[in-house]
What does this fold into?
Amino acid sequence: MTLDLKRNNLDQSTSPYLLQHRDNPVHWQMWSAEAREAPAAKDNPILRPVGYAACDWCHVMAHESFESEAIAGLMNELFVNIKVDREERPDIDTIYMTALHMLGEQGGWPLTMFLTPDGKPFWGGTYFPPESRWGRPGFPDVLQRIREVYDEDKDTIAKNTEALTTGLRENAMLEIRPDRPQIAPNVLDQVGQRLLQEVDSQHGGIGGAPKFPQVPAFELLWRMHLRTGDINARHAVLNTLARMAQGGIYDHLGGGFARYSVDAEWLVPHFEKMLYDNSALITLMSQVWRKEGLPLLEQRVRETAEWVLREMIAANGAFAASLDADSEGVEGKFYVWDESEIDAVLGPEAALFKDFYDITPDGNFEGKNIPNRRLKPDLLDAETEARLAAARTKLLAKRAERVRPAWDDKVLADWNGMMIAALVEAGLTFGERAWIEAAQRAFAAVVKDMQAESGRLFHAWREGRARHTGMRDDHACMAHAALALHEATGASHYIEHATRWVQVLDEHFLDERSGAYYFTADDAEALIVRTLDLGDNAAPNGNGVMIGVLSRLWRLTGDAAWRERLDTLAGAFATQMTKNFFPVTTAMNAMAFDMAALDIVIAGGRDDPATDALVAAAGRHAGPDRLLQIVDPGAGALPDNHPAHGKGPVDGKPAAYVCRGMVCGLPITDPEALARELRGG
It folds into this structure.
């Protein structure tokens, strides 16, 4: 197929982000072999911006530059312009974001990279204004200068591309210690103590503005508290979750958390809502609630789960990716309020709401008000909280009349895996079967619409089309989701799905030298480098997720091959942890699970209410290292090497067995007794 490089071709895409730019005067192309081959013949460099549908600064640069006839004319004259959705193509985004860091630039989106015709980067940045300001050069000047250097200084271009390409390849070579040591609990505690030094003791979170939730780091601290009793770790987690839950980063009317706060106090969010952030927060808040029982955490989990089920269900029943930060071209406009609007909607109840939600005539954000309870965070008596809840309901209904932010309704396999597992965790914790059923529907939709006959996954789905070869994180996160659903339901087909997806990873993604998994498959599109990484980015790293998956598969099946794979993969992280542990907290949490896994085996029929009562007790009271197995005596048995093998109901009653290591306790048939056992007496 021959592309017309003199027209905008984004109307052929299904990506909401790319479709946002289909009417730009820029002659945008989608990333494809045809688009990359065309500039090679003409020796035109490539301008390749990366962004995503909910990205506010992406919108700003689009309005200022990509919608400008003059700037678009320069882009069309000087470059072949290829636009990429970073959520559809995280493999591309990862490579060029790493290249930007190698150039000494701070990363972010929009990611604006300049490439040679064969796709090698030689310069880049993020946002550029339409004219010079804020110490940044104007985008037209950048375009002209880059093309001038490209045409007249081939040596500099060659040196840059060689240095960056070499660096990218070296970055994909993991340093492996020959002894492959395993990580001990005391190492995790040392990491936890170091993390505590970075925590903002007043406002919670790590560091200053901008402030991100950093959920895996706080899960590590929570596990350390449970393991050692460290009160500082407990305070760090509880304070951070409470500050976020009462801050402006949380949508107090509609539920759900924004991606980050632009200030250190969690007041002003970057208003976009992402599926993966909310899945992580649902999971951690559920885990912490099981020990602390804090009503605020339960309320936030319930409201966030309700938001997901109300606003984030895609056409096929799986979960959509995100909600935009902007509406009517203004960031946050959908979410902020004038005091007069509050008065008009709430009438006599307005004074109470304004007092507790920081609503003032002058506002707390650019003359407007972001509802929050930072200044009065403590929950009140039931009657007052009920009045505030009724006020929030009225305001939510009024807000629904506004122009809504854009909805990115594409389905991503990895992010769906995260939310499926989160809803299962919360559903077991709070006894909400509807959440688990929603997770089952989403799982079924991914399998139906995004799995090839070979068992391999696609990465994205929208408008009836599955696109882009599935990547490591897709298979890892969906395998984790499958095992979570197996815990909740006892259905064996979930183990079969997880096993198949791990086999796909072993067949097409495994680096035999390190034992870790490449980001892309061996038969996927050939990019300038094949990424092999261990660190978390915005979402958890699939290698870290796989440590937990392999640990669970070993315990569920008794197959020693899973144990061997687990030990090899964990060994790949040993050297990384000695250099910089911050990016590998997902892996460390999975290692902590493996060290302390608590097997809870419930022997009983799945249609027996007594079995359900034991499952509910286990879900509500066990710690984060729980591995729940429901064994129907008429449907199968545990592996021969499982410590609970051969154990079953007692006197016809379903029974629970709590196993630590290779030793199981006495059978427990009473849910309250099981709860006491799991709480420690």
Notes: The chain has a mean pLDDT of 94. The longest helix spans residues 560-579.
